[in-house]
């Protein structure tokens, strides 16, 4: 329904307006309009280059300096550095400003929700804007480490202890931060509506937040181009492009004169 509101869009807008608490779960699909490719879509990072997944696997990263060097080289040109929030990020920030969104739980590492104005953002997979030493835990701004890569260091080590450094993101084989996961589960448990946007809902424990919300009696709405394992239990499934439908939902939810 490009360009207009469908009946299902209006229903979701009404749910957003009347729900006591709304938690949003976002995945890579919300950032593709900002120029950041997703992972599993037709043009996804891992679809086009299956070897890229190895760079995000903790065991390979820690064991192989060549994997680390390649990962650092690729980070120099990561699309997040030039990306800007798109209309979907801005719509969610607008809903939060209207007290209609309680929290955004994101699987994304790009920081675009915060740059759009969202304040309560739970980054369950971490952030690409920081680097962490795997030995001593020192956190360093990514820009400082990339400056060393540009200066010729293939595998920049921690300046405090000499340990291996990696982006402050969750790699395959790495456990999520327990406090962050508990915070995400709490906002899922407390919500009346869980809005899952641009996520395949195939990666756990993030996808499990849908189960947490459903068990607590919440509605689930899925906004995603491709089918997900949770479509059958969702109250609504929207296939409209995210950058089109989110602003419309925000308009509907924040419209004045509504009951």
Question: What secondary-structure arrangement, pairings included, does this model have?
Answer:
Elements: H1 7-18, E1 22-26, H2 45-48, H3 52-55, H4 58-63, H5 65-76, H6 87-97, E2 103-106, H7 112-116, E3 121-123, E4 126-133, E5 139-141, H8 142-150, E6 165-169, H9 178-190, E7 193-197, H10 208-215, E8 219-223, E9 236-238, H11 242-254
Parallel strand pairs: 1-2, 1-7, 2-3, 7-8, 8-9
Antiparallel strand pairs: 4-5, 4-6
Helix pairs in contact: 1-11, 6-11, 9-10
Strand content range: 15-25%
**N-to-C order of helices and strands:** HEHHHHHEHEEEHEHEHEEH
Mean pLDDT: 93
CATH topology of the largest domain: Rossmann fold
What helical percentage do the residues reach? Answer: 25-40%
Shape: elongated
Number of helices, where a helix is a run of at least 4 consecutive DSSP H or I residues: 11
Could you state the CATH homologous superfamily of the largest domain?
A: TPP-binding domain
Q: Which structural class is indicated by helix and strand composition?
A: alpha/beta
CATH structural architecture of the largest domain: 3-Layer(aba) Sandwich
Strand order of the largest sheet: 3-2-1-7-8-9
Unreliable stretches (pLDDT < 50, length at least 5) are none
Strand segment tally? 9
The top level CATH class name of the largest domain: Alpha Beta
Keywords: Hydrolase, Metal-binding, NAD, Transferase, Zinc
Pfam family, one: SIR2
Enzyme class: transferase
EC number: 2.3.1.286
């Amino acid at each position: 329904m490009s360009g207009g509101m469908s009946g299902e869009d209006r229903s979701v807008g009404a749910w957003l307006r009347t729900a006591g608490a709304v938690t949003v779960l976002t995945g890579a699909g919300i950032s593709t309009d900002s120029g950041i490719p997703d992972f599993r879509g037709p043009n996804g990072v891992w679809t086009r280059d299956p070897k890229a997944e190895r760079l995000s696997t903790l065991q390979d990263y820690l064991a192989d300096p060549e994997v680390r060097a390649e990962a650092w080289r690729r980070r120099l040109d990561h699309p997040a550095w030039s990306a800007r929030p798109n209309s979907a990020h801005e719509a969610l920030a607008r809903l939060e400003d209207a007290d209609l969104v309680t929290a955004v739980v994101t699987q994304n590492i790009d920081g675009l929700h915060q740059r759009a104005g969202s304040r309560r953002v739970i980054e369950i997979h971490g952030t690409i804007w920081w680097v962490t030493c795997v030995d001593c835990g020192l956190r360093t701004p990514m820009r400082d480490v990339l400056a060393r890569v540009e200066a010729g260091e293939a595998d920049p080590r921690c300046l405090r202890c000499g340990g291996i450094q990696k982006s402050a993101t969750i790699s395959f084989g790495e456990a999520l931060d327990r406090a962050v996961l508990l915070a995400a589960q709490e906002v899922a448990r407390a919500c009346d509506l869980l809005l899952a946007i641009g996520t395949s809902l195939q990666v756990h424990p993030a996808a499990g937040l849908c189960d947490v919300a459903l068990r607590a009696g919440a509605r689930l709405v899925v906004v995603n181009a491709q089918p997900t394992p949770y479509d059958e239990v969702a109250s609504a499934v929207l296939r409209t492009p995210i950058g089109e439908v989110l602003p419309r939902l925000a308009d509907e939810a924040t419209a004045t004169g509504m009951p």
